[in-house]
């Protein structure tokens, strides 16, 4: 019986579809979601400018730029092109925690996608607005501190490039 259970567990692991059954921190790809939400709410515009000094301090926590560079003054598009964490921390702050959380849900990142495949994980890991402080908002705005499935993330990105449809 023990050998049978071990074999069954090994087979399930071998055939598990990680794209729908595992969670991960999306990282910089999430900047697309933050960008879309901030533009949609009017928190930022295409002409908004942000300052990257290579790092930014939020409530006593230092965050570094993804590439370790100092970009200086940059537009939203420039910040996205160079994957600038300080830029997106500022975007997230302008967006605000309630809007951030509302758009996290609106992009389908709180629920299963409903794909007709076995093994889809039915949850994600995220902060709600009442549990989110400035440090959590900062890290979430550039794709850290939340976990989603690969399928949830690609579905959200597709919504951005398809005009939210």
From TrEMBL:
GO terms for biological process: cell wall organization. This is Peptidoglycan glycosyltransferase. Keywords: Membrane, Transferase. GO terms for molecular function: penicillin binding; transferase activity. GO terms for cellular component: plasma membrane. It is found in: Membrane. InterPro entries: Beta-lactam/transpept, Beta-lactam/transpept-like, PCN-bd_Tpept. Its main location: membrane. Residues 9-163 form the Penicillin-binding protein transpeptidase domain.
